[in-house]
Specification:
- The structure is a homodimer of 245-residue chains.
- With 245 residues, chain A is α+β, with helices and mostly antiparallel strands.
- The first copy, chain A, folds into two domains: 71 residues, Arc Repressor Mutant, subunit A (Orthogonal Bundle), CATH 1.10.10.10; 158 residues, Chorismate lyase-like (Chorismate lyase).
- Chain A contains eight helices and ten strands.
- In chain A, the strands form three sheets. A six-stranded antiparallel sheet of chain A has the order 4-5-6-9-8-7. In chain A, strands 1-2 form a two-stranded antiparallel sheet. A two-stranded parallel sheet of chain A has the order 3-10.
- In chain A, helix 1 crosses helix 3 and helix 2 packs across helix 3.
- The two termini of chain A are 33 Å apart.
- The interface between A and B is large, with 87 and 87 residues.
- Strand 7 of chain A pairs antiparallel with strand 10 of chain B, so a sheet runs across the interface.
């Protein structure tokens, strides 16, 4: 049974307000990063101050805001936008937010597991270049990327500056070819203990897990990545189009 | 310092194998939903059986697979694909996987908070139609959707079958107009206690949080949604294109 929106549980009304406020917080829409006071928000959302307090508690739990006595409620998130529809490296995407560096945890040839070989259009067991990087923005971990590259595309990267440059840019530079499209699959997953340790988040923290297969403009698949992004540090955006059949 | 891929910690090698296997599991690529045995996987990933066991533990923790004594390791995920690039309602998207029903938790007019009014191109304080639905696939909770609709578009929906039909389909039917594009923002967030209870997941479970603003084909924004999807039940896919400047 549905009911009038104002007659629901306080927890439901708090979530409703929190969702609208969290978008403003993530979009950095509050001037100087200071939220309006509780009284103002209560009027704005036509609800009680207790409901607003509960809404702000939800956002504090997520690490998006903090209450500073004598100052008010401040935006403290270090969440940054990442466009999904444009295929871009992290450093390209986040250049205005700071410096991306990569801890290269592994780089070298591996035998391609059959599903990896198939997706890269290679024969089973063919060697591929495997690169594992912990990516940081201004020193803080952002994502853990496991990358498989077609051998002819990957090998020249071993002598390149993998610490400071995006793999996309290096591929285009060393191959002289352009990347075109990528197919992407996206999931929310709780961090296992070891990944949590590497990414410096609590065990169980929500991660955005992305699998991305990137192709040259001629359609040849060359770069398969498995990416774990910290949910508290990245937000993805995209545009969808309705197809009418 | 980077190192050869085969000389890393077992936990790193386990994650590497788990990522490849998890994609096969989510894509339902294993015949009859039965994973190859540990020995086969150890050869496939050129690693030890202990590493494979640890990889399978990670996927079991996520609820994707289960070990059945005497049978082997089975795919047990109820995760379904949702295309990001096509703007589709959930029932449209998942029709081949089962029946989508909606618990309508609230439906009625509310005063639009200013950021909601702004995004819908309305005057501040104008009433909008608010609809809150818990969406289920074959009876199991899938997502909790909070929807704000422009008043002229929303009002006719109150007499429609919100329990069994997608809001997108109802909007197009009652307005006689077509939806065009939507802008989408996507995040991974840990479930708060109350949302977890509603979605029937443990507190802290990873959710995919989506904010989506949908427009008519003429560009007018009419439908603003805040969606919490269970991370263990939905995976999103998209295609990105590289733009060369």
């Amino acid at each position: 049974m549905s009911s009038a929106p104002e007659r629901r549980l306080r927890a439901d009304r708090a979530r409703q307000a929190a969702d609208v406020i969290r978008r403003q917080v993530v979009d950095r829409a509050y001037p100087d990063g200071v939220l309006p006071d509780e009284h103002f928000l209560a009027v704005e959302f036509a609800t009680s101050r207790n409901t607003i307090r509960e809404a702000l508690d939800l956002l504090r739990e997520e690490g998006l805001i903090e209450r500073v006595p004598g100052v008010g409620t401040l935006v403290v998130t270090e969440k940054y936008p990442h466009g999904l529809e444009e295929l871009m490296g992290l450093a390209e995407t986040l250049h205005e937010h700071g410096e991306v560096t990569n801890d290269v945890r592994a780089a070298g040839p591996v035998k391609a597991p059959s599903s990896v070989a198939r997706r890269l259009g290679l024969a089973e067991g063919e060697p591929v270049l495997y690169v594992e990087r912990l990516r940081r923005l201004n020193g803080l971990p952002l994502s853990l990327d496991l990358t498989y590259l077609a051998p002819d595309v990957g090998a020249p990267l071993l002598t390149q500056d993998l610490r400071n440059r995006d793999i996309f840019a290096l591929i285009e530079q060393t191959s002289g070819r352009r990347l075109g499209t990528a197919s992407v699959a996206l999931e929310a997953v709780n961090a296992d203990l070891h990944s949590a340790t590497v990414l410096e988040v609590p065990r169980g923290a929500a991660l955005l897990v992305v699998e991305r297969l990137s192709h040259f403009t001629d359609g040849r698949p060359v770069d398969l990545e498995f990416i774990r992004m910290r949910g508290d540090r990245l937000t993805m955006s995209a545009v969808c189009r309705r197809t009418h059949r």
